[in-house]
Amino acid sequence: MAPATGGAKGASARLRVAAVPAAARETRHWAVGFVREHGARASAARTVELLVSEVVTNAVKYGAVADAIAISLRCADGAVTVRVTDDSTVRPVVRKARPSDLGGRGMELVERLAEDWGVDVDARRGKTVWFRVSLR
């Protein structure tokens, strides 16, 4: 894990985790600690916890990761931007899960709960799913 850095423009931190099921748990605890240190309300910390877990789980399940999943956090201007990078170039799909579906709600949650979100694809490096959540 890279140490958190800060300054006049905000604070940031990075983490690399193996693409294993435990990655979501490790990453969400790390992210919640980071946003709490930077003034997140309890509800904002819970939103970050949920969305980090969903996006990292997608990277583990569908990211075709050769080495590790990279996660970065940046707090600035009262919000945190989370970036999760894996080796796949396939964009995640927002779909409406039926009540009986056991999964498939992750990106729908990101779309509903994040202030903004998107996907950056690089044909040689994979994709980064990012989202922004207000800390206030």
Automatic annotation (TrEMBL):
It comes from the Bacteria. Keywords: Kinase, Serine/threonine-protein kinase, Transferase. CDD domains: HATPase_RsbW-like. GO terms for molecular function: protein serine/threonine kinase activity. Residues 18-132 form the Histidine kinase/HSP90-like ATPase domain. The keyword Cell membrane does not apply. Signal peptide: none annotated. Pfam families: HATPase_c_2 (PF13581). InterPro entries: Anti-sigma-factor_SerPK, HATPase_C_sf, HATPase_dom. This is Anti-sigma regulatory factor (Ser/Thr protein kinase). It comes from Cellulomonas cellasea. The lineage of its organism: Bacteria, Bacillati, Actinomycetota, Actinomycetes, Micrococcales.
